Backbone:
């Protein structure tokens, strides 16, 4: 996150203030607008990242990479259709690790791998549970619409406490084991307090959008530009957007088409989240490989 975290803090509280003037419906529209722009954009350059990340001894095959990428998306979509409850859990777990690895990427080559994996996973999962805890009834409704499975009202509080305990256990061990990590750990705990305020004070979609865009997507785009072009600049951002345009446009067309087909049916939520999950899985694989290489 680095220097951008200060901007994220200010922008987060500005986002909370500005939506206090809007209804919940407007907050949902604004939240999805951010997700459909910067949120999808940050995963629209995966093929370019694959090309940049290739082994110099191997010849890059665009058709092969594109085919493999599309096959992963199709497989994920099929899994969501066939076993939605399992794929939803997998989606949350994979996304949790992805959120965590973005926050804790500095650890990957400097500490034991199990430390990086365990902190990244429990941190990201705790963020999800924090969001779910403050909007439990909405989350339960969405889960039912997707999987037709009614979860117990006590499940989310139990998961919140259990995952929070595991996260504190891991960071507590790391705090006393690695003195150099102490500042980083205290900083991330402070960010969690900020996320708590954001999630509690906002609607489900707007709270998630603020975190997803300001604390994940934009920092990820900056990180990707550093990897692709060597530095972040306006010119490089324009180049990044140009190379991502066709994939971003196809994603938007797909989501808009789903909306107009299923907007009056409960089936839309299931299809919408399956679409997001399908494009998330291959993106997480690409980013993890880049972090490992770096």
Residues:
């Amino acid at each position: 996150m680095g220097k951008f975290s200060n901007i994220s803090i200010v922008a987060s509280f500005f986002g909370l203030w500005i939506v206090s003037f809007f209804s919940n419906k407007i907050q949902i529209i604004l939240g999805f607008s951010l997700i459909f722009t910067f949120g999808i954009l940050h995963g629209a350059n995966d093929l370019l990242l694959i090309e940049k990340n290739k082994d110099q001894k191997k010849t890059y095959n665009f058709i092969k990479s594109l085919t493999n990428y599309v096959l992963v998306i199709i497989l994920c979509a099929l899994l969501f259709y066939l076993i939605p409850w399992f794929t939803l859990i997998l989606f949350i777990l994979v996304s949790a690790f992805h959120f965590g690895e973005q926050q804790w990427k500095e650890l990957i080559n400097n500490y034991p791998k199990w430390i990086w994996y365990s902190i990244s996973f429990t941190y990201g999962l705790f963020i999800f549970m924090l969001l779910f805890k403050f909007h439990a009834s909405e989350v339960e409704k969405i889960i039912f619409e997707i999987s037709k499975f009614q979860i117990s009202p006590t499940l989310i509080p139990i998961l919140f406490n259990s995952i929070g305990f595991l996260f504190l256990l891991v960071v507590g061990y790391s705090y006393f084991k690695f003195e150099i990590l102490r500042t980083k750990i205290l900083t991330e705990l402070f960010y969690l307090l900020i996320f708590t305020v954001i999630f509690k004070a906002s609607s489900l979609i707007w709270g998630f959008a603020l975190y997803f865009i300001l604390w994940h997507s934009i920092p990820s785009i900056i990180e990707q530009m550093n990897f692709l072009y060597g530095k972040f600049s306006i010119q490089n951002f324009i180049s990044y957007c140009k190379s991502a345009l066709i994939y971003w446009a196809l994603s938007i067309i797909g989501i808009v088409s789903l909306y107009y087909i299923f907007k009056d049916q409960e089936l839309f939520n299931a299809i919408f989240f399956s679409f997001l999950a399908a494009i998330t899985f291959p993106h997480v694989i690409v980013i993890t490989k880049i972090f490992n290489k770096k």
